[in-house]
């Protein structure tokens, strides 16, 4: 889900526990494990204890980290 609330085609989003909360396409157990690891790394990247939503674009394999900064929602793409 993008910062404005729209679902993105071919994307997977997780909550703070790495659980899938919205997705497009089929997921496997291996995907869930990878998403949890990515979520953990994103929290370290942002140096925060706040939950960080993580989206993976299955078409481009880009990660999108979504978080709040001073009441603003931002999305950061990582290749």
UniProtKB/TrEMBL annotation:
One protein family per Pfam: LAMTOR5
GO cellular component, one term: Ragulator complex
GO biological process: negative regulation of apoptotic process
Protein name: Uncharacterized protein
Organism encoding this protein: Salpingoeca rosetta (strain ATCC 50818 / BSB-021)
